[in-house]
Structure formats: structure tokens, C-alpha cells
Amino acid sequence: MPDEPISGLDISHQVCMQTQQLPQPLLQVYGELCNMDILHLAYADVRRDFRDRGIDPLTLEALEAEGLASFLEQLLQDLESHTYPPTAPCQPEPTKDPLEPESRNAVRDQVVLAALHLVFERAWAPTAPQRSQPEEAIKWIAAAIEKGLTRIYAENIEACLGVVDCDRFLAKVTQRIADLEVVGLLQKILSTRPPSSQRKLVAPFLASIVFDGIERMLRQAKAIGRQEGFSHLEYARFEHDLIVLSDPDPRYEWILPAVQKRLREELSEFQFETNSTQTQWVNMARGGKLRLLGYELRAASDSSGKIHVRYKPLRKPKHLQSEAAPSTPTKMEPSRRRKLDGKSLRWLAYALAAGALAVTVLTAILWNRPAELTEHGFIKRICPRDLATQKTRYVVFVPQSYEYNGTETYPLILYLHDAGERGHDGYRQVQTGLGPAVTGSQYSFPFITLFPQSENGGWQPASDDLNQALDALADVKKSFRVDTKRLYLTGVGSGGLGTWHLAAEHPELWAAIAPISAQGYPEKAALIKNIPCWCFQAQDEYFADRVERARAMIQALKDAGGAPRYTEMPGVGPYHNMVFDRVYESPKIFEWLLEHRLP
Predict the structure, then answer these.
(1) What is the C-alpha separation between 89 and 201, in angstroms, rounded?
(2) Helix, coil or strand: residue 7
(3) What pLDDT digit, counting tens, does each position of 252-299 carry?
(4) Which of 129, 320, 468, 485 could form a Cys-Cys staple with 316, CB 3.0–4.6 A?
């Protein structure tokens, strides 16, 4: 009798059980750091990535001309004698000597950091080379897609958001590296950096740490798939990037959201969070495109149904197109110098300003061009009225099932964030509330979802914030096929108050609303009595009067002739963020929304 097929739940349980045990911490690692071969490899990494590391290429050329061996030998002696002093980064004054002490120290510090990263690679044992050539990596990805692994999740650890908590970071390091000399050296290096630069310094080490548990989970899932004689899953790390590819087998639908959830949990230990606008969820079988390692990949099927992948390098800005070291600038010959008077300088300034404005507007128009859109997932856009200033940015999520050449219309959710996500960055509003819930179910989430950002976080009646949200809504309706009879409104905290306000200002727009942790305004009940409403509130809300005011709002709606739905949630903690996590992570709220449409 043949074996019964393995379900997706069985696979996820097996993976969970097999990834609980952590490897033993490594001892006596400092000796590996004091190795000339390691230092040579580290220098090669610095030489390759000199721009990202802020190193002047002239300094590297001068070091090599003077004698690279002696430079590394001195560094080795300092490490062995524990006299190596990390220096605070500084911008050296431009001089004729590229080997001034500040420049030399910058190279030395970067070599030590690169060597430490090499040591970390052994401690956290990546399953794929982290320094593969980009084109080789892209070829590997293209081959996996052509084998049918068309669903993709990609994350870059450098794009994560947060401020480094050095104590938490070092405590996590000591779980796997028990050599106090290595940990102490890393601590000294961090202490020389201001908080603003610690995040970039920690990024490669953080990648090794947070990807480790994820890789062990992926190894087990991949091994289970191979038992069936077919690889349902592939994954790899390329420096700071993690990419996971899966086939359409429904038993493996859980794996990509599970990876993203695990990454969020790992990052939360360091008070970091993923940047949803930079996370890529791509279904290549539906015409999606993947941007990774400086390349863009697209897939197409031939008449027989076989998938073919094409890729091309992304165009770089002019100042990055040449990898060669810049030549030393020469002074202009005196006979060719021309002195500009004040009038000429003014006209030159006007011309430059006009040119910059024209480029900005043209770039924004091209960015927002609806006819060219092919992306799915989170797309960052600018409201048309602010194309010149690029001030009002918003994010729209496009479902994976959306076909740009199709005719089907899609329901839309407008989400108003809480006060903590206010600003101009254009992405913070996706990091909490509805955004993570959408991210966790990207392949099945059926709504076009709009994430405007408030400047002040208040969402007050007739305010610029609410008007900009309506402008963004109009822009999305113009650019995408939105079912105007299925527009839904929801928000949390101050965004929940904005939900009540916007529903009262435009009751004709909404098929249903779902304010969360927002007590409401009983005097507006008559304006919104006919809109289906489901309101959520924490039973033990921090401010004692919020529950009573929420109940008063619901009673006012009932007295006006409405039939609102109201849920108080016990045991979710004193703050409303614990409410919306539970609300949005449940499919019930989205099923309820879809039950309602305008006549």
C-alpha cells in the first residue's frame, strides 16, 4: 500500500521539531582572526567593496605600492599582541598624501571588520557562499525559476529599520562565540562608532545571526522535499540578501510566510524590523519581476508552457558606472580660466535649479506612470499634486493575482496608521498594523491595499492628512482596476479616530469600516449609521475611559438605527497595538469585509 501523502501541516511540524537544537558555541576563535591568510582574504573584500566601506581608492593603490605585506604584517602583530586600537571614523582632510594616518587607519579598521565577518561565517555556517559573483548568483536563481520554483521571497538585512542595541547584539554573539577576546574586540569597535554608523557596521554580522535559524529551518524543509525525488524549495544567501524560491505545490505555501515571520521574530530581539517596502514577494509565473544584486529578472512561458528567464543589469548612476579608480584631477590651465561675475553666477544658479526641478518632476512622473506598471506586492508612489516636491508619498499593495492586462476589478482597503508612524519617509506606515498581516499572506491576500502616511499623525476632520489620503485613493483608482462598490476603511489608534472622521465626511464611499482602539464620536453617529461597522477595543485599555467611550459610540449608532458589531478583547495587554495584531492576523475581519458591498 503506498504511503499517504504528506500534508503541509505535517511538513511544517517536522521542520519545527528538527530545528530546535542549537549548535555548540565555538571556543578559541581569536586565533583564527590572527591568521595572515584570513587578513589577505579580508583585504580582498575591502578592495572589492571600497566604495561601500568609504575607502579612497588612491589610499589602496598607495598602500599596495608601498607594500601590502608589511601593512598586513604590522596589523597581524597588533592583533596578536592585543595592541590593535580601533579608531573612530573621520573624514580626512584632502591632501596630496593618500597615506595620511586617518586614511591608513580607515583601511586597517575595515580589514579587521572584514576578517571578523569571515570568522562569523564559520560560527554561523551559511549554506551558500556569501561572496558569490553577482552574475553567477543571478544565473543560479534563473535556473531555479526555470525548474518551476516561481514563488520568491527576498529580503535584504541592510534595509531593516531600527537602532542598534549593542548589549543585546553582543549577548546574542556570545551564544555562538564563547571566545571573549573576539567579543571584546567587536565591543571595542562598536564603542568607537556613533549610533548613526553602528547600524551599517552591524549589518553583515546581523545577517549571519538572524539568517542562521532560518537556514536551519529551510534545510529541513528542503530535505523533506527531496525525499519525494523533487526539490520543492531552494534558497541561498548572497552577502546581506536572503532569497527563498518555492514551487506552486500547496503543501509548501506555508514556507515563505514562515520565513518572513521567523525573520521578524529574530530581528525583534535586536529591536529591528523588516522594511516591508523593500521586501520582495514575487510570483514569476504571473509576470512578476525580481530586482536583486544589481540585476532585474523577468520570466515568460513559451507555447509549450516552459518557463524562460531573462535578466539584465540595472542601470547605475553615472558616477557608479565605472568601477575603475578615478584618476587624479588636473588643474585647469590658467589661460583657460574664466572668472564669472555676480550676474552670470545668478543665471547659472537659476538654470541649475530649473534643471533640477525638471529632472525631479520627470523622474516622479516616470515612477508613477500607470501604463507601465507590472509589479506586484508593495509599491511606493507619490501623490500627483506633489510630483515636484515628492512630499506626499504613499504605498499601495497589489495582489499577486492582479493581472495588468485583465478586466477583473479588485476590492480596496484604505488603512490609516497610528501616530507613531507619521512623517514623510513613505514607508513607516507599512511597518505595523495591517502591513505585516498583508506581508504574511502576500500570495493569497485579495485586496488592493492603500497605505497613506500622515504628516502629523492626527487624521483630523478636513485636515491635509485626510485630504492627502483621499488624493492617494483617487490616484490608485485611476491607476488600478478598483471595484468602487467594495471600498473598505480601517485604522488603529489615531488612525481609528481618522476612520470615524473619514467615514462621516464621505459616508457614500465605504462598503464597510473597521476602527480599532478608537472610541469614536457619538455626535457623528447619524452620519454613519448605514455603514456596516465592526469596532474592536481592548478590555483593559490603558486609559480607563476608552472602553466606556467606545461603548457609548456603539450605543449611539444603535440609537440612530444602525447595526454595528463590537468586540472587546480581553487579555491582550494595556496598549492598542496588541489589539490590532490579533485583529489583522485573523482572516475573519477580511472575510467579514468581503461580505459587504455598496448597492
Answers:
(1) 11
(2) coil
(3) 777 788 787 778 777 777 777 777 767 888 888 877 788 888 888 998
(4) 320
Which comes out higher in pLDDT, residue 204 or 134?
A: 134
User: 577 in helix, strand or coil?
Assistant: helix
Distance, in Å, from the CA atom of 73 to the CA atom of 43, rounded to the nearest integer, reads 12
Closest of 207, 237, 204 to residue 219, by C-alpha: 237
| Residue 430, pLDDT score | 87
Q: What pLDDT does 228 receive? A: 56
Q: Rounded CA gap, 153 and 214, in Å?
A: 13
Beta strands 534-538; 565-569: pairing state: parallel
Q: What are phi and psi of 248, to 5 degrees?
A: -75, 5
Strand order in the sheet with 295-301: 289-292, 295-301, 307-313
By the 8 A CB rule, do 285 and 299 touch? yes
Cα 212 to Cα 122: distance, rounded to the nearest angstrom: 11
Treating both helix axes as pointing N-terminal to C-terminal, what angle do 36-48 and 57-80 enclose, rounded to 10 degrees? 160
DSSP assignment of 53-89: TT--HHHHHHHHHHHHHHHHHHHHHHHHTT-------
Q: Percent of the chain scored above 70 by pLDDT? A: 75
Cα 161–chain centre separation: 8
Contact call for residues 483 and 412 (beta carbons, < 8 A): yes
Rounded to an integer, what distance in angstroms lies between the CA atom of residue 79 and that of residue 449? 54
Q: What cell was used for 484?
A: 468602487
Q: Is the pLDDT reported for residue 89 higher than 80?
A: no
161-170 per-position pLDDT tens digit: 677 777 877 8
Helix (H, G, I), strand (E, B) or coil at 566: strand
Residue type, 63: L
Q: Decide: helix, strand or coil at residue 581.
A: helix
Please, are residues 108 and 75 in contact by the beta-carbon 8 Å criterion? yes
Which 3 state secondary structure label does DSSP give 391?
A: coil
Q: Which grid cell is 179?
A: 571566545
What contacts 204, CB < 8 A, 6 or more positions away?
117, 120, 239, 240
Closest Cα partner for 128 from 240, 2, 293, 262? 240
Where is average pLDDT lowest: 45-49, 55-59, 205-209, 449-453?
Answer: 205-209
Question: What phi and psi, each to the nearest 5 degrees, are found at residue 589?
Answer: -65, -40
Measured at the alpha carbon of residue 9, what is the angle toward residues 4 and 15, in degrees to the nearest 5? 100
Specify the pLDDT at position 517. 87
